[in-house]
Amino acid sequence: MKKMKLKVAKMGLIFSVLAASLAVVPAGYETVSAAAAGKSMAAVFAQVQAERAAQVVALVNKERAAAGLEPLIVHTNLTKMAKDKAVDMYRNHYFEHTSPTYGSPFDMMDAYNITYLYAGENIAKGQRSAEEAVEDWMDSPGHRANILNPKYKLIGVGYYNGYWVQEFIGK
Predict the structure, then answer these.
(1) Which of 36, 53, 111, 164 could form a disulfide bond with 133, CB atoms 3.0-4.6 angstroms apart?
(2) CA distances from 14 to 8, 44, 121, 130 (A)
């Protein structure tokens, strides 16, 4: 019962903060439509997701530099795929490399017209920051091997509601 009350209290606080942030209207604007407010919140969430993905790329490249490797270059279509995989895991309530929607990461790459000679995927769930996600990957031998694989030259990172996805390819 206490957990339920606490959860409701937290949700009420979050709603209050969101409502308060939406109530702030720049000078010169009388009203903000619900659709505009929704778009604003969607834009904020999209920005947060993009920032977290960019932080992962920066941290991965820092690890690669420390290992004497060249940085990975962000690949636009691989990034879209990684984001779609994160969304898919969240919406379909699973956490594994094989998607019920897309199949294996390699099937998904094929579906997104991504060509490669070498490819890999890292996934994570529940980490609260990019730093925490990369640290957990670096503490895992298999994930670390992907991050430090000299054959990989391109990366795509997706983040969505606590799900983290890294896609790697080499051509």
Answers:
(1) 164
(2) 10, 15, 34, 22
CA distance 132 to 129: 5
pTM for the whole structure: 0.76
Report which of 71, 40, 88 is spatially closest to residue 168, judged by C-alpha positions: 71
**Strand 118-125 relative to strand 163-170, pairing:** antiparallel
Question: Which residue's structure tokens are 């000299």?
Answer: 150
Beta carbons of 64 and 71 less than 8 angstroms apart: yes
CA-angle at 100, arms to 85 and 77, nearest 5°: 30
pLDDT averaged over 10-residue windows placed end to end, the chain, 171 residues:
41 34 36 56 85 96 98 97 98 97 98 98 97 98 98 97 97 95
Rg (CA), the chain: 19
Are 77 and 114 a contacting pair, CB within 8 Å? yes
